Automatic annotation (TrEMBL):
GO terms for molecular function: ATP binding; protein serine/threonine kinase activity. PROSITE patterns: AGC_KINASE_CTER, PROTEIN_KINASE_ATP, PROTEIN_KINASE_DOM, PROTEIN_KINASE_ST. The keyword Nucleus does not apply. InterPro entries: AGC-kinase_C, Kinase-like_dom_sf, Pkinase_C, Prot_kinase_dom, Protein_kinase_ATP_BS, Ser/Thr_kinase_AS. Belongs to the protein kinase superfamily. AGC Ser/Thr protein kinase family. Keywords: ATP-binding, Kinase, Nucleotide-binding, Phosphoprotein, Serine/threonine-protein kinase, Transferase. It holds the Pfam family Pkinase_C. It catalyses: L-seryl-[protein] + ATP = O-phospho-L-seryl-[protein] + ADP + H(+); L-threonyl-[protein] + ATP = O-phospho-L-threonyl-[protein] + ADP + H(+). Its EC number is 2.7.11.1. This is Serine/threonine-protein kinase Sgk1.
Length: 427
Protein backbone atom coordinates (compact mmCIF):
# COMPACT_ATOMS: atom_id res chain seq x y z
CA UNK A 1 0.00 0.00 0.00
CA UNK A 2 2.94 2.29 -0.41
CA UNK A 3 1.35 3.44 -3.66
CA UNK A 4 -0.27 6.67 -2.66
CA UNK A 5 -2.05 6.95 -5.99
CA UNK A 6 -4.25 4.22 -4.68
CA UNK A 7 -6.38 6.30 -2.40
CA UNK A 8 -9.47 4.22 -2.63
CA UNK A 9 -11.68 4.43 0.35
CA UNK A 10 -13.99 1.67 1.40
CA UNK A 11 -16.83 3.75 -0.01
CA UNK A 12 -15.20 4.52 -3.31
CA UNK A 13 -14.31 0.91 -3.70
CA UNK A 14 -17.97 0.18 -3.28
CA UNK A 15 -18.80 2.48 -6.15
CA UNK A 16 -16.38 0.72 -8.41
CA UNK A 17 -17.59 -2.68 -7.40
CA UNK A 18 -21.13 -1.74 -8.30
CA UNK A 19 -19.99 -0.77 -11.76
CA UNK A 20 -18.22 -4.05 -12.15
CA UNK A 21 -21.37 -5.84 -11.16
CA UNK A 22 -23.38 -3.90 -13.67
CA UNK A 23 -20.78 -4.84 -16.24
CA UNK A 24 -21.08 -8.48 -15.45
CA UNK A 25 -24.80 -8.25 -15.79
CA UNK A 26 -24.57 -6.63 -19.16
CA UNK A 27 -22.23 -9.09 -20.77
CA UNK A 28 -23.03 -7.76 -24.19
CA UNK A 29 -20.87 -4.78 -23.51
CA UNK A 30 -17.24 -5.31 -24.36
CA UNK A 31 -14.60 -4.58 -21.76
CA UNK A 32 -13.33 -1.59 -23.64
CA UNK A 33 -16.75 -0.07 -23.97
CA UNK A 34 -17.20 -0.69 -20.32
CA UNK A 35 -13.97 1.07 -19.44
CA UNK A 36 -14.97 3.89 -21.70
CA UNK A 37 -18.28 4.17 -19.96
CA UNK A 38 -16.66 4.08 -16.57
CA UNK A 39 -14.29 6.84 -17.37
CA UNK A 40 -16.88 9.03 -19.01
CA UNK A 41 -19.83 8.43 -16.73
CA UNK A 42 -20.43 11.74 -15.01
CA UNK A 43 -22.38 10.28 -12.10
CA UNK A 44 -19.58 8.17 -10.74
CA UNK A 45 -16.54 9.29 -8.87
CA UNK A 46 -14.76 9.80 -12.16
CA UNK A 47 -11.53 10.74 -10.63
CA UNK A 48 -11.33 7.68 -8.49
CA UNK A 49 -12.46 5.32 -11.14
CA UNK A 50 -10.04 6.72 -13.65
CA UNK A 51 -7.23 6.45 -11.16
CA UNK A 52 -8.27 2.94 -10.36
CA UNK A 53 -8.27 1.90 -13.98
CA UNK A 54 -5.15 3.60 -15.14
CA UNK A 55 -2.71 2.84 -12.36
CA UNK A 56 -1.05 -0.10 -14.08
CA UNK A 57 -1.48 -3.41 -15.78
CA UNK A 58 -1.43 -5.21 -12.50
CA UNK A 59 -4.46 -3.34 -11.29
CA UNK A 60 -6.33 -4.19 -14.45
CA UNK A 61 -5.55 -7.81 -13.82
CA UNK A 62 -7.03 -7.39 -10.38
CA UNK A 63 -10.16 -6.03 -11.93
CA UNK A 64 -10.40 -9.00 -14.22
CA UNK A 65 -9.91 -11.40 -11.34
CA UNK A 66 -12.52 -9.62 -9.34
CA UNK A 67 -14.76 -9.80 -12.36
CA UNK A 68 -14.25 -13.55 -12.60
CA UNK A 69 -14.87 -14.06 -8.93
CA UNK A 70 -17.98 -11.98 -8.94
CA UNK A 71 -19.06 -13.71 -12.08
CA UNK A 72 -18.70 -17.15 -10.63
CA UNK A 73 -20.41 -16.07 -7.45
CA UNK A 74 -23.31 -14.85 -9.52
CA UNK A 75 -23.38 -17.73 -11.96
CA UNK A 76 -23.31 -20.40 -9.37
CA UNK A 77 -26.62 -19.17 -8.10
CA UNK A 78 -28.45 -20.85 -10.92
CA UNK A 79 -27.78 -22.58 -14.18
CA UNK A 80 -28.85 -19.73 -16.42
CA UNK A 81 -29.04 -16.53 -14.51
CA UNK A 82 -25.88 -14.49 -14.53
CA UNK A 83 -27.14 -12.40 -11.67
CA UNK A 84 -29.09 -13.26 -8.61
CA UNK A 85 -31.63 -10.66 -9.66
CA UNK A 86 -33.78 -13.70 -10.31
CA UNK A 87 -32.99 -15.08 -6.89
CA UNK A 88 -36.08 -16.36 -5.17
CA UNK A 89 -35.31 -14.56 -1.96
CA UNK A 90 -38.05 -12.19 -0.86
CA UNK A 91 -39.01 -10.25 2.23
CA UNK A 92 -41.65 -12.74 3.30
CA UNK A 93 -39.09 -15.53 3.56
CA UNK A 94 -38.21 -14.09 6.96
CA UNK A 95 -39.88 -13.48 10.27
CA UNK A 96 -38.91 -10.01 11.48
CA UNK A 97 -38.36 -10.07 15.20
CA UNK A 98 -36.75 -6.89 16.46
CA UNK A 99 -35.29 -3.61 15.37
CA UNK A 100 -31.61 -3.62 16.23
CA UNK A 101 -30.52 -0.43 14.54
CA UNK A 102 -31.99 2.65 12.93
CA UNK A 103 -30.66 5.30 10.62
CA UNK A 104 -31.85 8.00 8.29
CA UNK A 105 -32.13 5.60 5.34
CA UNK A 106 -33.77 2.67 7.00
CA UNK A 107 -33.34 0.15 9.73
CA UNK A 108 -31.61 -3.04 10.71
CA UNK A 109 -33.84 -5.89 11.83
CA UNK A 110 -33.21 -9.18 13.49
CA UNK A 111 -34.84 -11.76 11.27
CA UNK A 112 -35.25 -15.50 11.18
CA UNK A 113 -35.46 -17.38 7.93
CA UNK A 114 -38.73 -19.24 7.94
CA UNK A 115 -37.36 -22.46 6.43
CA UNK A 116 -33.88 -22.75 7.85
CA UNK A 117 -34.56 -21.01 11.19
CA UNK A 118 -31.24 -19.20 10.82
CA UNK A 119 -30.91 -15.71 12.24
CA UNK A 120 -29.73 -12.75 10.23
CA UNK A 121 -29.41 -9.01 10.59
CA UNK A 122 -31.36 -7.56 7.68
CA UNK A 123 -30.74 -4.01 6.69
CA UNK A 124 -33.75 -2.53 4.94
CA UNK A 125 -33.33 0.70 3.02
CA UNK A 126 -35.99 2.85 1.37
CA UNK A 127 -35.13 3.46 -2.27
CA UNK A 128 -37.06 6.71 -2.33
CA UNK A 129 -35.04 8.19 0.50
CA UNK A 130 -31.78 7.06 -1.02
CA UNK A 131 -32.65 8.49 -4.42
CA UNK A 132 -33.67 11.77 -2.88
CA UNK A 133 -30.20 11.99 -1.38
CA UNK A 134 -28.56 10.70 -4.56
CA UNK A 135 -26.88 7.95 -2.64
CA UNK A 136 -27.61 4.98 -4.88
CA UNK A 137 -24.06 4.52 -6.01
CA UNK A 138 -22.89 4.16 -2.44
CA UNK A 139 -25.62 1.74 -1.57
CA UNK A 140 -24.99 -0.38 -4.64
CA UNK A 141 -21.41 -0.35 -3.73
CA UNK A 142 -21.94 -1.26 -0.11
CA UNK A 143 -23.60 -4.41 -1.25
CA UNK A 144 -20.77 -5.07 -3.62
CA UNK A 145 -17.98 -4.70 -1.14
CA UNK A 146 -19.82 -6.95 1.24
CA UNK A 147 -19.94 -9.63 -1.43
CA UNK A 148 -18.23 -12.89 -0.72
CA UNK A 149 -15.13 -11.68 -2.48
CA UNK A 150 -14.43 -9.59 0.60
CA UNK A 151 -14.29 -12.28 3.21
CA UNK A 152 -12.37 -12.24 6.45
CA UNK A 153 -12.97 -13.77 9.89
CA UNK A 154 -13.29 -10.32 11.49
CA UNK A 155 -15.46 -8.62 8.87
CA UNK A 156 -19.23 -9.03 8.78
CA UNK A 157 -20.43 -11.18 5.87
CA UNK A 158 -23.20 -10.40 3.42
CA UNK A 159 -25.20 -13.54 2.75
CA UNK A 160 -27.80 -12.19 0.36
CA UNK A 161 -29.19 -9.03 -1.04
CA UNK A 162 -32.48 -8.55 -2.80
CA UNK A 163 -34.92 -5.81 -3.63
CA UNK A 164 -38.56 -5.04 -4.00
CA UNK A 165 -40.03 -2.11 -5.89
CA UNK A 166 -39.49 0.24 -2.99
CA UNK A 167 -36.85 -1.29 -0.72
CA UNK A 168 -33.37 -2.78 -0.72
CA UNK A 169 -32.48 -5.66 1.59
CA UNK A 170 -29.06 -6.70 2.85
CA UNK A 171 -29.01 -10.04 4.63
CA UNK A 172 -25.99 -9.93 6.94
CA UNK A 173 -24.53 -12.23 9.54
CA UNK A 174 -26.21 -11.56 12.84
CA UNK A 175 -23.64 -10.58 15.45
CA UNK A 176 -24.98 -10.34 18.98
CA UNK A 177 -22.06 -9.99 21.38
CA UNK A 178 -22.63 -6.25 21.56
CA UNK A 179 -20.52 -3.27 20.63
CA UNK A 180 -16.96 -3.43 21.89
CA UNK A 181 -17.43 -0.03 23.50
CA UNK A 182 -20.56 -1.14 25.26
CA UNK A 183 -18.34 -3.57 27.15
CA UNK A 184 -15.61 -0.99 27.53
CA UNK A 185 -18.01 1.48 29.10
CA UNK A 186 -19.08 -1.11 31.62
CA UNK A 187 -15.51 -1.94 32.56
CA UNK A 188 -13.99 1.55 32.06
CA UNK A 189 -10.69 0.19 30.72
CA UNK A 190 -9.39 -3.11 29.36
CA UNK A 191 -6.15 -4.52 30.66
CA UNK A 192 -3.39 -4.82 28.10
CA UNK A 193 -3.74 -8.45 27.05
CA UNK A 194 -7.40 -7.98 26.28
CA UNK A 195 -6.87 -4.67 24.49
CA UNK A 196 -4.02 -6.24 22.52
CA UNK A 197 -6.23 -9.11 21.38
CA UNK A 198 -8.94 -6.77 20.10
CA UNK A 199 -6.44 -4.40 18.49
CA UNK A 200 -4.77 -7.35 16.75
CA UNK A 201 -8.05 -8.69 15.34
CA UNK A 202 -9.06 -5.22 14.14
CA UNK A 203 -5.60 -4.66 12.63
CA UNK A 204 -5.70 -7.93 10.73
CA UNK A 205 -9.09 -7.03 9.23
CA UNK A 206 -7.80 -3.59 8.23
CA UNK A 207 -4.62 -5.11 6.78
CA UNK A 208 -6.74 -7.47 4.73
CA UNK A 209 -8.85 -4.63 3.34
CA UNK A 210 -5.72 -2.68 2.52
CA UNK A 211 -4.40 -5.67 0.60
CA UNK A 212 -7.52 -5.31 -1.56
CA UNK A 213 -6.84 -1.59 -1.96
CA UNK A 214 -9.74 -0.70 0.29
CA UNK A 215 -9.49 1.87 3.05
CA UNK A 216 -12.04 1.15 5.75
CA UNK A 217 -11.89 4.71 7.03
CA UNK A 218 -15.07 4.45 9.08
CA UNK A 219 -13.50 2.77 12.06
CA UNK A 220 -15.58 3.98 14.95
CA UNK A 221 -16.92 2.48 18.14
CA UNK A 222 -20.34 1.55 16.81
CA UNK A 223 -18.79 -0.40 13.91
CA UNK A 224 -16.77 -2.67 16.18
CA UNK A 225 -18.84 -5.57 17.45
CA UNK A 226 -18.15 -8.78 19.32
CA UNK A 227 -19.58 -12.08 18.17
CA UNK A 228 -21.06 -14.53 20.63
CA UNK A 229 -17.61 -16.07 21.22
CA UNK A 230 -15.92 -12.74 21.88
CA UNK A 231 -14.16 -12.20 18.54
CA UNK A 232 -14.16 -8.86 16.77
CA UNK A 233 -16.55 -8.25 13.86
CA UNK A 234 -16.16 -5.01 11.96
CA UNK A 235 -19.42 -4.01 10.47
CA UNK A 236 -20.96 -1.07 8.76
CA UNK A 237 -24.56 -0.89 9.77
CA UNK A 238 -24.56 2.83 9.42
CA UNK A 239 -24.15 4.29 6.01
CA UNK A 240 -21.02 5.63 4.56
CA UNK A 241 -20.95 9.35 4.99
CA UNK A 242 -18.96 10.03 1.91
CA UNK A 243 -20.70 12.37 -0.50
CA UNK A 244 -23.51 13.27 1.85
CA UNK A 245 -22.44 16.86 1.63
CA UNK A 246 -23.62 18.55 -1.54
CA UNK A 247 -20.22 19.32 -2.97
CA UNK A 248 -17.49 17.63 -1.05
CA UNK A 249 -15.88 14.24 -1.23
CA UNK A 250 -12.92 15.02 0.99
CA UNK A 251 -14.94 16.51 3.79
CA UNK A 252 -15.66 13.09 5.19
CA UNK A 253 -14.99 12.00 8.69
CA UNK A 254 -13.38 8.97 10.14
CA UNK A 255 -16.15 7.90 12.43
CA UNK A 256 -16.91 9.87 15.50
CA UNK A 257 -15.23 13.28 15.67
CA UNK A 258 -12.90 12.04 18.39
CA UNK A 259 -11.28 9.66 15.92
CA UNK A 260 -10.70 12.19 13.15
CA UNK A 261 -7.19 11.99 11.79
CA UNK A 262 -5.41 15.33 11.39
CA UNK A 263 -5.27 14.99 7.60
CA UNK A 264 -9.02 14.29 7.45
CA UNK A 265 -9.75 17.19 9.76
CA UNK A 266 -7.68 19.47 7.55
CA UNK A 267 -9.29 18.06 4.41
CA UNK A 268 -5.96 16.97 3.05
CA UNK A 269 -5.33 13.86 1.02
CA UNK A 270 -5.43 10.71 3.04
CA UNK A 271 -4.46 7.10 2.45
CA UNK A 272 -4.52 3.74 4.20
CA UNK A 273 -2.64 5.21 7.17
CA UNK A 274 -5.89 6.92 8.22
CA UNK A 275 -7.04 3.48 9.41
CA UNK A 276 -3.91 3.07 11.56
CA UNK A 277 -4.61 6.43 13.18
CA UNK A 278 -8.13 5.28 13.99
CA UNK A 279 -6.76 2.01 15.34
CA UNK A 280 -4.48 4.08 17.58
CA UNK A 281 -7.55 5.94 18.83
CA UNK A 282 -9.39 2.70 19.55
CA UNK A 283 -6.41 1.21 21.37
CA UNK A 284 -5.88 4.38 23.39
CA UNK A 285 -9.51 4.42 24.42
CA UNK A 286 -9.38 0.74 25.41
CA UNK A 287 -6.30 1.30 27.57
CA UNK A 288 -7.13 4.70 29.06
CA UNK A 289 -10.91 4.84 28.95
CA UNK A 290 -11.15 8.02 26.86
CA UNK A 291 -10.28 8.93 23.27
CA UNK A 292 -6.75 10.35 22.97
CA UNK A 293 -7.54 14.02 22.33
CA UNK A 294 -10.80 14.18 24.13
CA UNK A 295 -12.34 17.42 25.25
CA UNK A 296 -15.97 18.27 25.90
CA UNK A 297 -15.35 21.35 23.84
CA UNK A 298 -15.24 20.16 20.21
CA UNK A 299 -13.15 23.08 18.98
CA UNK A 300 -10.60 22.37 21.65
CA UNK A 301 -10.62 18.68 20.76
CA UNK A 302 -9.93 19.51 17.10
CA UNK A 303 -7.12 21.77 18.17
CA UNK A 304 -5.72 18.96 20.32
CA UNK A 305 -5.88 16.52 17.41
CA UNK A 306 -3.89 18.90 15.25
CA UNK A 307 -1.45 20.28 17.79
CA UNK A 308 -1.15 18.30 20.98
CA UNK A 309 0.77 15.14 21.68
CA UNK A 310 -1.45 12.43 23.16
CA UNK A 311 -1.14 12.24 26.93
CA UNK A 312 0.47 8.95 27.91
CA UNK A 313 -0.18 8.24 31.53
CA UNK A 314 2.16 5.69 33.11
CA UNK A 315 -0.32 2.89 33.59
CA UNK A 316 0.44 1.37 30.17
CA UNK A 317 3.56 -0.63 29.29
CA UNK A 318 6.38 0.98 27.32
CA UNK A 319 5.57 -1.16 24.30
CA UNK A 320 1.95 -0.04 24.49
CA UNK A 321 2.85 3.62 24.74
CA UNK A 322 5.36 3.32 21.91
CA UNK A 323 2.74 1.75 19.69
CA UNK A 324 0.21 4.47 20.53
CA UNK A 325 2.74 7.17 19.76
CA UNK A 326 3.64 5.49 16.47
CA UNK A 327 0.00 5.16 15.39
CA UNK A 328 -1.00 8.63 16.56
CA UNK A 329 1.69 10.40 14.52
CA UNK A 330 0.08 13.54 13.15
CA UNK A 331 2.15 13.44 9.97
CA UNK A 332 0.82 10.39 8.18
CA UNK A 333 4.10 9.81 6.34
CA UNK A 334 5.73 9.17 9.74
CA UNK A 335 2.92 6.97 11.05
CA UNK A 336 3.47 3.29 11.74
CA UNK A 337 2.23 1.45 8.64
CA UNK A 338 3.10 4.24 6.21
CA UNK A 339 5.71 2.07 4.49
CA UNK A 340 4.90 -1.59 4.90
CA UNK A 341 1.33 -1.21 6.11
CA UNK A 342 0.08 -4.04 8.37
CA UNK A 343 3.49 -5.78 8.27
CA UNK A 344 4.93 -2.95 10.36
CA UNK A 345 2.27 -3.40 13.02
CA UNK A 346 2.65 -7.16 13.11
CA UNK A 347 6.29 -6.91 14.16
CA UNK A 348 5.79 -4.18 16.76
CA UNK A 349 6.85 -5.33 20.23
CA UNK A 350 3.41 -4.59 21.69
CA UNK A 351 2.06 -7.41 19.54
CA UNK A 352 4.92 -9.85 20.22
CA UNK A 353 2.68 -12.13 22.32
CA UNK A 354 0.36 -12.50 19.30
CA UNK A 355 0.76 -15.43 16.92
CA UNK A 356 -0.84 -13.91 13.85
CA UNK A 357 -1.55 -17.22 12.14
CA UNK A 358 -3.43 -18.47 15.18
CA UNK A 359 -5.21 -15.16 15.50
CA UNK A 360 -6.65 -15.27 12.00
CA UNK A 361 -7.55 -18.93 12.40
CA UNK A 362 -9.49 -17.85 15.53
CA UNK A 363 -7.31 -20.21 17.55
CA UNK A 364 -6.65 -17.57 20.20
CA UNK A 365 -9.43 -17.96 22.72
CA UNK A 366 -11.01 -14.64 23.67
CA UNK A 367 -10.58 -13.91 27.38
CA UNK A 368 -14.01 -12.45 27.51
CA UNK A 369 -17.07 -14.24 26.18
CA UNK A 370 -20.19 -12.07 25.99
CA UNK A 371 -22.96 -13.39 28.17
CA UNK A 372 -25.43 -14.39 25.50
CA UNK A 373 -27.58 -17.45 25.64
CA UNK A 374 -28.13 -17.77 21.93
CA UNK A 375 -28.76 -15.90 18.72
CA UNK A 376 -32.01 -14.42 19.99
CA UNK A 377 -30.35 -12.94 23.03
CA UNK A 378 -30.45 -9.18 22.53
CA UNK A 379 -29.24 -8.08 25.93
CA UNK A 380 -26.28 -6.26 24.39
CA UNK A 381 -28.37 -4.13 22.09
CA UNK A 382 -29.59 -0.68 22.86
CA UNK A 383 -33.08 -1.15 24.35
CA UNK A 384 -34.07 2.07 22.63
CA UNK A 385 -34.03 0.16 19.36
CA UNK A 386 -35.09 -3.28 20.37
CA UNK A 387 -38.37 -2.16 21.87
CA UNK A 388 -39.59 -0.42 18.75
CA UNK A 389 -42.39 -2.30 17.09
CA UNK A 390 -41.61 -3.99 13.79
CA UNK A 391 -44.05 -2.61 11.28
CA UNK A 392 -45.70 -5.12 9.03
CA UNK A 393 -44.75 -3.05 6.00
CA UNK A 394 -41.42 -4.83 5.80
CA UNK A 395 -43.13 -7.84 4.39
CA UNK A 396 -45.78 -6.00 2.40
CA UNK A 397 -43.54 -3.71 0.49
CA UNK A 398 -44.69 -4.89 -2.91
CA UNK A 399 -47.88 -2.93 -2.58
CA UNK A 400 -50.05 -2.49 -5.62
CA UNK A 401 -50.18 1.26 -5.31
CA UNK A 402 -47.23 2.16 -7.45
CA UNK A 403 -46.76 5.88 -7.45
CA UNK A 404 -44.53 7.49 -10.01
CA UNK A 405 -41.71 8.07 -7.59
CA UNK A 406 -41.82 4.45 -6.55
CA UNK A 407 -41.81 3.43 -10.18
CA UNK A 408 -38.78 5.56 -10.74
CA UNK A 409 -37.10 4.11 -7.71
CA UNK A 410 -37.95 0.57 -8.71
CA UNK A 411 -35.45 0.52 -11.54
CA UNK A 412 -32.68 2.53 -9.98
CA UNK A 413 -30.73 -0.45 -8.60
CA UNK A 414 -30.16 -2.95 -11.39
CA UNK A 415 -27.99 -5.86 -10.40
CA UNK A 416 -28.50 -5.32 -6.70
CA UNK A 417 -29.64 -8.79 -5.77
CA UNK A 418 -27.13 -11.37 -4.75
CA UNK A 419 -27.10 -14.93 -3.56
CA UNK A 420 -24.17 -17.13 -2.67
CA UNK A 421 -23.47 -20.52 -4.22
CA UNK A 422 -26.23 -22.96 -3.49
CA UNK A 423 -24.28 -25.12 -1.09
CA UNK A 424 -24.02 -22.25 1.39
CA UNK A 425 -27.55 -21.13 1.15
CA UNK A 426 -31.15 -21.78 1.54
CA UNK A 427 -32.68 -24.68 -0.36
C1 LIG B 1 -19.31 23.61 -0.67
O1 LIG B 1 -20.47 24.02 0.01
C2 LIG B 1 -20.23 24.94 1.06
C3 LIG B 1 -21.54 25.22 1.76
O2 LIG B 1 -22.52 24.34 1.38
C4 LIG B 1 -19.60 26.21 0.49
O3 LIG B 1 -19.33 27.11 1.54
C5 LIG B 1 -18.32 25.86 -0.24
O4 LIG B 1 -17.79 27.00 -0.85
C6 LIG B 1 -18.57 24.79 -1.29
N1 LIG B 1 -17.31 24.37 -1.84
C7 LIG B 1 -17.12 24.19 -3.15
C8 LIG B 1 -15.78 23.73 -3.55
O5 LIG B 1 -17.99 24.38 -3.97
C1 LIG C 1 -3.53 0.34 36.09
O1 LIG C 1 -3.24 -0.99 35.70
C2 LIG C 1 -3.58 -1.97 36.61
C3 LIG C 1 -3.10 -3.30 36.13
O2 LIG C 1 -2.18 -3.18 35.09
C4 LIG C 1 -5.08 -1.95 36.80
O3 LIG C 1 -5.46 -2.89 37.76
C5 LIG C 1 -5.53 -0.57 37.24
O4 LIG C 1 -6.92 -0.51 37.29
C6 LIG C 1 -5.03 0.49 36.29
N1 LIG C 1 -5.32 1.80 36.84
C7 LIG C 1 -5.78 2.80 36.10
C8 LIG C 1 -6.01 4.09 36.82
O5 LIG C 1 -6.01 2.70 34.92
C1 LIG D 1 5.45 15.25 6.88
O1 LIG D 1 6.70 14.67 6.77
C2 LIG D 1 7.28 14.77 5.49
C3 LIG D 1 8.56 13.97 5.48
O2 LIG D 1 9.34 14.20 6.60
C4 LIG D 1 7.50 16.26 5.16
O3 LIG D 1 8.06 16.38 3.88
C5 LIG D 1 6.17 16.96 5.24
O4 LIG D 1 6.35 18.33 5.05
C6 LIG D 1 5.50 16.73 6.58
N1 LIG D 1 4.17 17.26 6.53
C7 LIG D 1 3.71 18.12 7.42
C8 LIG D 1 2.34 18.60 7.23
O5 LIG D 1 4.39 18.48 8.37
Amino acid sequence: MADTRCELSYCRMRGIMSLLTAFIKDRKMGLNDFMQKLVSCPHMCQHDVRGFLTIDEKRNEDIMNLDDELDSAMHSNGPRSSLAEETQMKPCDFHYLKIIGKGSFGKVLLAKHKETSEYYAIKVLQKKVILKKKEQKHIMAERSVLLKTVKHPFLVGLQYSFQTTDKLYFVLDFVNGGELFYHLQRERIFLEPRARFYAAEIASALGYLHSLHIIYRDLKPENILLDSQGHIVLTDFGLCKEGLEPNGTTSTFCGTPEYLAPEVLQKQAYDHTVDWWCLGCVLYEMLYGLPPFYSRNTAEMYSNILNKAPVMKPNVSNAGRELLEALLQKNRTHRLGAKQDFEELKIHSFFSPINWGDLIAKKIKPQFVPAVTGPMDLRHFDPEFTHLPVTSSVCNSDSLMVTSSVREAAHAFPGFSYGPPKDHGFH
